[in-house]
Specification:
NTP_transferase_dom, Mannose-1P_guanyltransferase, 18% helix, Trimer_LpxA-like_sf, elongated, UDP N-Acetylglucosamine Acyltransferase, domain 1, alpha/beta, Spore Coat Polysaccharide Biosynthesis Protein SpsA, Chain A, NDP-sugar synthase
Length: 337
Amino acid sequence: MDAILLVGGQGTRLRPLTARRHKSLVPVCNRPAIDYLFAWLERSGIRRAILALGLANEDLAARYPAGRHRGLEILPIIETARLESGGAIRNAVETAGIDDRFLVLNGDVYLDFDFAAALAAHVERAADLTLALHEVDDPSSFGVAVCDPDGLVTGFVEKPPPGEAPSRLVNAGAWIFERRLVDEIPPGAVRVEETLFPSLVARRRVVLGYRFEGHWADLGTPARYLALHRALLGAGAAIHPGASVHPSAALAGAAVGEGSVVGPRASLSGSVLWERVHVGEAAELVDTIAADGARIGPGARLRGCVIGPGATIGPGAAPPPGTIVDADGQYHEPHAG
């Protein structure tokens, strides 16, 4: 069985973190996020992963060229125009020669559930389409699915206002397609979530909502990215063997990437350092992300900040909570405004 990974987006919601790297290469506990999807696909018995690459995705294409990657065959497909999810699926199916049932994954999710059980339910119900659904506490920023008592999808609500969602089951970005559905995707650059899926439901086709209990996260925003690390790390830490952490530094729920340096008496809580980040003596980072090559000066205090690649936070600086510093930007104010 083949899987199509929709990895053509530009990661705009994660900027400035994605200013210099593809969103699928964003590190999760010091591994590229897409590596977790590859590992899950391999465990699930998928034989080939087709990367539907959009424009300006050269770094991802270079990182995962055509060929074997562990137990998977990787096939990158470069799109020459913006296709959205529907056009990308059609293009990947035709280019890769897919002639049977296949799986589609959004490239900016983290998931772990029993795919064999989902596939068995799809086959048993003779479904045209199966959507993996996951229950969340606040579905207001997601696409919500409404299901009948038999688990069939009866409708969709996109980003319902807080407290008004008809259910808490959200589209988890994993879909089992029958090959015949590709011919029903409208032409052009269209999103299947807004065209094909509602059309199938309206025509009373069998669209199964498969609810799973495994772990799931949308990596589309810095807040969700940090929440995933909290879920994976708890109070522990993920320190790359190529990083240097001073024995007097305190880490809790933190990840430290390759080539990064954490100085004496520095404190990292719920924070993520990418590669080659330097954290000075007695600096304090709480719920903060620092991208490649960022430098945090001694005594700096950061809370809920997003520090872009190559950015500099001056000694003793204390940006207001939630501050975003662009790539190569600087912040030197000693007191929060």
